[in-house]
Amino acid sequence: MKIMCLGGAGRICRETAFDLAEFSDFEEIAIADIDEAAGAEVVSEIGSGRVKFVKLDISDHDASVEKMKDYDIVADGTTIGINGRTSAIIADAGCHAVNLNGMGDENNYADAFKEKGLVFVPGFGMTPGVTQMMVMHASARLDAIDTVRISHGAYRPFAFSRSIAETTTYEYDPLLESRVVFENGKFVQVPPFARPREVLLPEPYGRTEQYIIPHSETHTVAESLQSKGVRLVEVRGTWPPENMRLIRALYEWGILRNDKITVNGAEAGIMDCLSEYLIHSKEGTETELYGYALHVEVVGIKDDETLRYTLYHTHPASDGSVPGWEGLRAYTRNVGIPMSIAAQLIAHGRVLERRTGLLIPEYAFDPADVFHELGRRGIRIHEKIERESEGVSCK
Question: Which helix (H) or strand (E) holds 335?
Answer without folding.
Answer: helix 329-347
